[in-house]
Write a structure and sequence with these properties.
The chain is an alpha/beta fold. The chain has helices spanning 12-24, 38-45, 60-69, 88-94, 106-127; strands at 4-8, 28-31, 49-53, 78-82, 98-101. Helix 3 links the parallel strand 3 (49-53) and strand 4 (78-82).
Amino acid sequence: MSYRIFVFEDNLELIDLLKEIFSLKGDHLVAFQPGESISVQVMNADPDVILVDLRMNPTGQEIIKELKSDPVLKTIPILLFTASSIKPSEVTAMGVQGIIHKPFSLEDIEKNVDKAIKKHNRRIESAE
C-alpha cells in the first residue's frame, strides 16, 4: 500500500533524504512550504501521516496545535521528529502518536510511520 506523507522540516537535505526513502517504497512525500497556510497545505496533500520537526519556525508545537484545532485535520496521525530529549508525558500532551529521534535509521522511520498509519486505520475500521 502506498502512503501520502506530509512533513514539516526545515532541513532541506533531510527532506530530500526522506523523499528518497519513501519513494523507494512507493510512497509520496510532500514537504511544508513556509509562508503558506498550514491547514490548507495539509488539506490539499490529504496525508495518511504527518511528520513534524519539533525545533523549527514556526515551532513544531505551534504546528501541532494548529492541526489539532481543525476538526478534519486533528484525526491525522502525527509523528514528532526531534534531536532533543523529550519526556513521554510531553509527547502525550501534544497529542502526537509517537516520536522519531534524530538521527534515525531507515528502519526506525519506516516502522514508526507504518505503525502510526496502521493504528489510525484500525481506529477508523472499529468506529464504522
